[in-house]
RNA sequence: CGGGGCGUAGCGCAGCCUGGUAGCGCGCCUGCCUUGGGCGCAGGAGGCCCCCGGUUCAAAUCCGGGCGCCCCGACCA
């Protein structure tokens, strides 16, 4: 690392983000434009995210599967809106084994089509339903403007796909998975999100209805952190996914799909991070506690390291993800800064003075300097640490929620909305027309993020046209 | 896809205008010293100066062409 300090978020949020991702060794640029290499620390975070989600998917009856990456080009063409939405960003394979292919293959941008194709073979009867599947994979979308984690040509995600006998059941599934994303974001990532419905302009290509969870980043911009789509019978019709019901009638299935990607790592960085670097939510942190030993003489070194290793073992036994930093040649101060930059939520400082009184200094990442430090007896440390991790988890969530609240404004006209989205969210009544939505975007550079499921306050007149509006929507500049 | 910036040691950069021995900081290696908030000293290793062509006795430097990456704007998980 050439530069030790990051730019501050106020100076240049975008540059702060870029440098942090590289310096914290979450990811690096790949040799191909717009592609990233996820490094061990970043992947460990992703693994914790996948574990937290996968647990929830399994608990609601979903099974994991693996579909191939290559899809016949013609499949994409079968659903009208789908092809319109995805054609511009497809990567297409035209040569295989040195021969021009009879039919080009696309690298999946998402798997609705190939899954629909297979379902048409597998689903015959209402007894075969529902089908509840999920796959962890990567997909490719040829984006023009890329940014590590937030938008790369290839990204990692999970895509859930389900087929149901009735509209109601499919709609329930769509909402259930949105709830799961919300619960994950709030409980595990400490990121408050607004679950809501997308406008027609913003919805998934091929969906009847798209829901999303929207989060506010540290610069006040919005990030769509997860989506759940009610696909109606669009793909079932395009791929003839049909079943015979109890009355002997042939019916099209109702399907859903839902996804959450490595983009979520970008959300964690931009929601919790501060000018010192990352702050990992304890529940997802690859390293929850780092022990930094401090010593001068050989004698001190051996007694401190003895105590540190013993402590390390006890914390491991308590189920805490702990790392003992035994690196030589870096000073304790250097290590403090290093682990702060990498966002470890709790640091244990252990030096001769501490060992003498059988204690250790605990420092919490979310409170800088002395303010966040306390001394605690070594014997209690597994318990004390666990408690502190829970406190940090809660504090991060509350801080993010307060930040969002204080940067969200009720707006009554376009001027107010324009000002509100300079550094936050705007709540505004919206009549629901695409024209008004387009007008707002044109004049303010903000997009309609979602119509929150939980409506706060009374809807009045549409902010753009003045006609009565049924609902209030969130507008913001978005990543 | 438009606008801007940048390609020189692992990283960050200077040198280029005005052609002539390739440099600085950090990192890395060795040794000593240090470790409670980004220690210090000494020695050392490390280069297709993005690529191709041109001008010239001589090109990192001037000229032409290409490629790549980043940033900013319109589309997107």
User: Low-confidence runs (pLDDT<50, min 5 residues)?
Assistant: none
Structural class: alpha+beta
Number of domains: 3
Helical content, roughly? Answer: 25-40%
Which percent band covers the strand fraction? 25-35%
Task: Look up the CATH topology of the largest domain.
Answer: BirA Bifunctional Protein, domain 2
Work out the number of β strands: 23
- The mean pLDDT is 93
CATH architecture of the largest domain: 2-Layer Sandwich
Number of helices: 14
The first-level CATH class of the largest domain is given as Alpha Beta
The end-to-end distance, rounded to whole angstroms, is 28 Å
Strand order of the largest sheet: 3-7-8-14-11-10-9-22-23-21-20
CATH evolutionary superfamily of the largest domain: Bira Bifunctional Protein, Domain 2
User: What's the main sheet like?
Assistant: 11 strands, mixed
Shape category: globular
Computed Rg: 25 Å
Descriptive overview:
With 479 residues, the chain is an alpha+beta fold. The chain has three domains: 260 residues, Bira Bifunctional Protein, Domain 2 (BirA Bifunctional Protein, domain 2); 98 residues, Anticodon-binding domain (Rossmann fold); 69 residues, C-terminal domain of ProRS (Translation Initiation Factor IF3, 2-Layer Sandwich). It contains 14 helices and 23 strands. It has an eleven-stranded mixed β-sheet. A five-stranded mixed β-sheet has the order 16-15-17-18-19, with helices on both faces. It has a three-stranded antiparallel β-sheet with strand order 4-6-5. Strand 10 and strand 11 form a beta hairpin. Helix 2 packs across helix 6. The structure holds one RNA strand of 77 nucleotides.
């Amino acid at each position: 690392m050439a530069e030790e300090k990051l730019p501050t978020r106020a100076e240049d949020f975008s540059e702060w983000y870029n440098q942090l991702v590289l310096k914290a060794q979450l990811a690096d640029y790949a040799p191909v434009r717009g592609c990233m290499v996820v490094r061990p620390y970043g992947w460990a975070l992703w693994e914790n995210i996948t574990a937290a989600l996968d647990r929830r998917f399994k608990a609601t009856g979903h099974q994991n599967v693996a579909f191939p990456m290559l899809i016949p080009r013609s499949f994409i063409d079968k659903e009208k809106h789908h092809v319109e939405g995805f054609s511009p960003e497809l990567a297409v394979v035209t040569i295989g084994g040195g021969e021009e292919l009879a039919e080009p293959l696309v690298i999946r941008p998402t798997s609705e089509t190939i899954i629909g194709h297979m379902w048409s073979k597998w689903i015959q009867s209402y007894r075969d339903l529902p089908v509840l599947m999920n796959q962890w994979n990567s997909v490719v979308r040829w984006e023009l403007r890329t940014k590590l984690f937030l938008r790369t040509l290839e990204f990692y995600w999970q895509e859930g796909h389900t087929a149901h006998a009735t509209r109601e059941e499919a709609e329930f599934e769509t909402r259930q998975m949105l709830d799961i994303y919300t619960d994950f974001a709030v409980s595990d990532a400490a990121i408050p999100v607004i679950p809501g419905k997308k406008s027609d302009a913003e919805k998934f290509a091929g969906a009847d209805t798209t829901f999303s969870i929207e989060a506010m980043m540290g610069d006040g911009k919005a990030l769509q952190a997860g989506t759940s789509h009610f696909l109606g019978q669009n793909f079932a019709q395009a791929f003839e996914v049909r079943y015979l019901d109890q009355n002997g009638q042939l019916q099209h299935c109702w399907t859903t799909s839902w996804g959450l990607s490595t983009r979520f790592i970008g959300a964690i960085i931009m929601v919790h991070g501060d000018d010192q670097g990352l702050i990992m939510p304890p529940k997802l942190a690859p390293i929850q506690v780092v022990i930094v030993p401090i010593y001068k003489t050989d004698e001190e070194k051996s007694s401190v390291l003895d105590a540190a290793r013993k402590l390390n073992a006890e914390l491991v036994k308590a189920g805490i993800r702990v790392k003992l930093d035994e690196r030589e040649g870096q000073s304790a101060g250097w290590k403090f800064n290093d682990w702060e930059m990498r966002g470890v939520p709790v640091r244990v400082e252990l030096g001769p003075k501490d060992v003498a009184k059988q204690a250790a200094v605990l420092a919490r990442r979310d409170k800088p300097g002395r303010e966040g430090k306390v001394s605690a007896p070594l014997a209690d440390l597994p318990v004390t640490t666990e408690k502190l991790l829970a406190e940090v988890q809660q504090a991060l969530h509350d801080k993010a929620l307060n930040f969002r609240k204080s940067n969200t404004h009720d707006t009554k006209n376009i001027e107010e909305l324009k000002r509100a989205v300079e550094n936050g969210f705007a709540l505004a009544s919206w009549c629901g027309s695409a024209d008004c939505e387009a007008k707002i975007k044109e004049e303010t550079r903000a997009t309609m993020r979602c119509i929150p499921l939980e409506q706060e306050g009374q809807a009045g007149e549409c902010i753009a046209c003045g006609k009565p509006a049924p609902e209030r929507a969130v507008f913001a500049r978005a990543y």
